[in-house]
Every structure is written in structure tokens, then in C-alpha cells.
Write a structure and sequence with these properties.
Blueprint: H1 8-32, H2 41-44, H3 49-66, H4 73-104, H5 116-123, H6 143-161, H7 165-178, H8 187-192, H9 198-211, H10 218-234, H11 244-261, H12 270-277, H13 279-300, H14 308-342, H15 345-352
Amino acid sequence: MTTIKRYKSIQVLRALAALGVVAFHTEGNVGAYGWAPRVFPHFSRYGELGVDVFFVISGLVIALVSYGEPQGFQAARKFLAARITRIVPLYWALTLLFLALLAIVPSAFGHPRLNVWHVITSFLFLPSINWSGVIAPVINVGWTLNYEAWFYVVFAAAMCITSRPLIVVATFLGITSLLRLAHGSGVPFLVYTDPIVLEFVAGCCIGTYCARGKPIPPGAAFVVLLGVLVLRKLYAPTLTDDNRFIVFGVPAFGIVFAALALEARIRWSSFLGKLGDASYSLYLTHVLSLPFALKVIQMADRQHRLPGDLVCLLVVACSIVAAFACYRLLERPLTRVAGRWLARPADANKVEGTIAT
């Protein structure tokens, strides 16, 4: 797998996307615990867009690492090994930790009713309904990884049958998205016909352009962002699963496109760059660090005298600290071990140098 350029802008976007998701979840939980943030919600309400930015970045990365590479079964095997190395070890480790916590202190999570099938599908990145009646794995934010895994499998299959996998992937995912119009039912149908997968294709288009060594002109980025704003002004429906690609996916495409256009024109934050490295840990661990931080703050402020906005900032700060700790103590060591098992030593080193989501 070819070593690819590390775009500072993409690393910062990864950090901001993860922070957006954390902020989005923080607001609701802080309110549920009795505090009333006033300013924080004006920003956190856009945090859900972070998921879509991640998906576009993921498509970008896949296009970059696969561009110009020989295709075929062996290439697909290496591709999947690299993706498994990147997302599976930490996710499995945290899923096991979460299951242990559910067994030890079930009251802290509302006494969920686990079943074997749901646990198995969670580990295999297959969609299933959880104890709340929602299509999500044991770690609920892992629903995005079900789409990531689906995209990787489709891309790997395309690598086996054609020298231009992006065209096949775009065609296939476009067709499955159109099947959504059939209004079918069932968990597999609802997940695998979701148009949100088109965000990966959008990212692949940007990645293919960048892989050819062509810089994105700032003027083009301005036109794209202007087009996004006009589209959102003319077509601004309430978010649903069916129109998410329009409501959030297209803006996410514009954000990534613009960031790459400004890659060499902005001094990007080194702190956010480092947080971008730990963004996967931040995304997965905040579902544990967030409620823990809130319970600690609640014990120290039983009368809820602290401003709600300050509580939100404290919770986000705690999530960041937990993410850095997880990245250094768990994610990086597990990734190295998995890399040695699944790839040659040279390939394992290259995997760690990518900007994969």
C-alpha cells in the first residue's frame, strides 16, 4: 500500500469532525442532567455534520491509497488488511470493555437487554437492532462503522474485477441508493440502500483528483461552497435518512474540498492536527467519557449552580483527555500488533502513516 501525503487540513478536519460529534452528544446529555447551556447549542447543533465529513474524508483516503496501485485479488486482500488494521482492534477492544461495564454496572446504562445475535453482529460490523429499537451496535456510535465496512467490502470487490474500481463502486452504490425509492423494509435493506454511502463516492472523487497531483484552485473551492449555500437555501428540508446526502453530505463535500484548496495557504493548528491523529479514539471513547465526566461534575455541583455552557466545555475537555490517553495507550499499540499479523512489516508501517478514518 503506497504511503500517501499527510494533508494538515484533513487532519484538522478530522479533529473538528470528531469534536462536532462530541459537542452534539454533550449538549443533549448536559440538558438531561439538569444544566441549561445557552451559547453552546448554537454551535453543537451543527456537530452531527461531523459524521458526514468523516465519510467524505474516508472516500478521499481510499482514493488516495488505491490510486495507481495494481488491482486484483492480492491488491484487494492488502487493502482489506490495511482497513481492518485501522478500524477493528480499537473498536473490538472498546466493545469488550463496554460489554464488561454493562455486565458489572447495568444500572448506569438503563439496564439494557443484550442478546447474543446483537453482540455478534456488533463485532462483525453487520447492522442489527439494539435494546432501544435502534439500528446500532453495542457501542451506538459504531453505526457509522457499519457503513465504513460496507464501503470497504464493495471497494475491495471492485478491485478484484476491474482496473477502475471507483467507477464500479460509484455505479453500484448509486444503484443501491436508488433502490431506496422502493420503500422496502428490514434492517439490511434500510442500511444498504441508504444514500449516505454516496458521501464516500464524493470523497473518492476529490481523492482521485488530488492523487493526480493537481492542486485545488481556491476559486474552484469558492464556487463549490457558494453552490452548496445556494442549494441549502433553495432546498432545506428537515433531515431524514433519505435526504441526508443533500442536507449534510453535500456541505461536507464542500468543506473538505475547500480545506484542501487552502492546504498551503493557512497555518493549520498543530494541536488540532494531533487531535486529528486521535480522532478515532475521540469518536469511540466519548460515549464512555461523556457520562463519566457528567457524573463527576454532578457530584461536585449537586445544586446545578455551574453555567450549563461551562459544564459542556468541561465535558468536551474530559473527552479530549480520554481520547489522547486511549490513542497512546490502546489505539497505537493495538494497531501495530494488528499490522504485524495482517500485513508485511513494510505495509504495516505505511498503514500507520495514512490519514484514514
